[in-house]
Amino acid sequence: MPLIELDKVGKTYRSGNRNVPAVVDFSTRIEAGEFTVLAGPSGSGKTTLLNLIGCLDQPTSGRVLIDGQDVGSQSTAKLADFRRDHIGFIFQSYNLIPVLTALENAEFTLMLQGVSPAERRRRVMEIFERLGIAGLENRRPDDLSGGQQQRVAVARAIAARPSLVLADEPTANLDSTNSRELLELMRQLNREDGMTFVFSSHDPQVIERARRVITLRDGRLIEDRRRP
Ligand SMILES: Nc1ncnc2c1ncn2[C@@H]1O[C@H](COP(=O)(O)OP(=O)(O)OP(=O)(O)O)[C@@H](O)[C@H]1O
């Protein structure tokens, strides 16, 4: 069974008295363990698609199935629990909470899951070591570089060991060295821990390193390319 199945998915936004079709008749399957990039120009529907896969939004037509479960048939509370326990999110602008330290930011999901403070700290410290940001745990986001903030955001996304990590333009605010390093880190988590990654990008450097590239234009799938 695929981890993600999109079956003729459509999403139309209502803007004033206009209908904006952001995703149109979109079908695909993503298996556990894939490392897939959604490519396409600005406005082609990448963020909308990630929001649908991440159960942050519901399609206006078609079905989204995660692990065989139809997202549309779940209650809001059940979806929130599902997101917390199975999906990690990484955003373009990091979205760290400014008043919390790096450690507190990274612990956030574990705290929501009711994991004890000692265990949270142990798990997050292990991840900080692995991501090369050990020593920065007491800094607040404002005192970290962009690359460091994005690593903290990755730590937050993976701390609860989600089966699926979704990232919306994760390298958009990073220079090319930091982008390459972040990508390498995500590849390593994919290879060694089997985490499934789906992320959006229009950065050629990112696209060229993905194993599977799904290209969108005007909300439609126009190409689905896999590398061996
Ligand atoms: N909340 C909304 N209300 C109305 N229209 C929206 C909304 N969100 C997105 N859109 C429109 O839907 C289309 C797809 O947008 P989306 O953000 O998914 O594209 P994208 O490929 O992620 O773009 P970018 O690379 O610029 O982030 C665009 O035409 C956008 O203007």
From TrEMBL:
Any one Gene Ontology cellular component term annotated for this protein: membrane protein complex
Ranges for domain ABC transporter: 4-228
Stored SMART domains: AAA (SM00382)
Record CDD domains: ABC_MJ0796_LolCDE_FtsE
PROSITE patterns: ABC_TRANSPORTER_1, ABC_TRANSPORTER_2
SUPFAM superfamilies named in the record: P-loop containing nucleoside triphosphate hydrolases (SSF52540)
A Pfam family hit: ABC_tran
Keyword Nucleotide-binding assigned: yes
InterPro entries found in the cross-reference section: AAA+_ATPase, ABC_transporter-like_ATP-bd, ABC_transporter-like_CS, ABC_transpr_LolD-like, MacB-like_ATP-bd, P-loop_NTPase
Lineage: superkingdom: Bacteria
Alphabetized UniProt keyword annotations: ATP-binding, Nucleotide-binding, Transport
Gene3D superfamilies noted in UniProt: P-loop containing nucleotide triphosphate hydrolases
Molecular-function GO terms, alphabetical: ATP binding; ATP hydrolysis activity; transmembrane transporter activity
Family assignment from sequence similarity: Belongs to the ABC transporter superfamily. Macrolide exporter (TC 3.A.1.122) family.
Protein name per UniProt: Putative ABC transport system ATP-binding protein
Organism: Geothermobacter ehrlichii
